Amino acid sequence: MLALSWTDENSVRRAIRETRELTDRPFGVNLVLEWDQRERLAACLEEGVHIVSFFWGDPIPYAETVHEAGGLVLHSIGETREAVAATRERAADVIVAQGWKAGGHVRGTVASMSLVPRVVDAVAPVPVVAAGGVADGRGLVAALALGAVGAWIGTQFLLAEEAATHDAYRAAVLQADETGTVYSSLFDGGWPDAPHRTLRNSTVEAWEAAGRPPKGKRPREGEIVATGPDGRPVERYEDTIPLPGSSGSVEALAMYAGQGVGLADRVQPARSIVGEITREAAEVLNDLGAATRLRDEW
Fold first, then answer.
1. What is the pLDDT of residues 175-202, one digit of tens each?
2. Could you tell me the fold of the domain covering 2-153?
């Protein structure tokens, strides 16, 4: 999935074309509906993208355009009523049920274990993908057991060799355990009042030590802490992540990660991550099958 919500139209087209040159496999684009995405969506469809993922808004005004182009609509939700609304008028072809354990911006406050089966029941026969906290084959099997057709995994791929992850960000992921993330609206510069889950870092710790004050009263608010790879200064509390080429106190920037971060323990190619997850899932399913046969024999 190409995250293109804040990308200008020319860069949208360039990213799609470059991706197509790198793979003959399916890929899609993700657009956040907090902002009007009609122009970006038109560019994506004109470039031949047929998988479009929406988030944080109403997909119905956009869905018909995608369907007319022969595309597939995925929509991420955080609660059951959002899922039901998104499947009205056959807008969403696939629902992504995002539990609050997820990294990055988080739509709801319900854990995946409770959310996924509720959504599966509410929107059947529309397929549901589970997101939030899934990081290995066991999590994938759990998602399938809850009725999902698959899992949306993010945090684990921050460690992929191919990922544009800053070395400091990658190191922080490797050091974190399941308690190392924080759910807040702290990094709100660029996207106000949007809850998210990030790694605990010096910015988070200073804010917590100050009693979690509101915007305008937070420690060192407005301070320039880093410079982006394009030379742009980055203030503390922006929603900007550290990318390769960023400099300064990049550890203080927003580093999104989910509660499955403790299971992300080494850097390896994305292909290897996918292979390990699928092999482990197959082994777990095989073990469960053996347990079922043993039970039946008894």
1. 999 999 999 999 999 999 999 999 999 9
2. TIM Barrel (3.20.20)
Give the type of residue at 149: V
Cβ contacts of residue 41 below 8 Å, gap of 6+?
31, 52, 62, 65, 66
pLDDT digits (tens, 9 = 90+) for 260-273: 999 999 999 999 99
> What confidence tens digit (pLDDT) does each residue in 73-104 have?
999 999 999 999 999 888 999 999 999 999 99
Q: Pairing between strand 196-199 and 104-105?
A: antiparallel
204, HSE (Cβ side, Cα atoms, 13 Å): 19
Residue 93 has which token pair? Answer: 């072809």
Residue of 198, 247, 242, 257 whose CA lies nearest to 227: 247
Ranges of each domain in the chain: 2-153, 167-262
Task: Return the beta strands (E) in 173-285 as ranges.
Answer: 181-184, 196-199, 224-227, 233-235, 247-248
Whole-number CA gyration radius for the chain = 20
Looking only at the bridges linking them, the beta strands covering 94-98 and 72-77 are parallel
Distance CA 79, CA 193 (A): 18
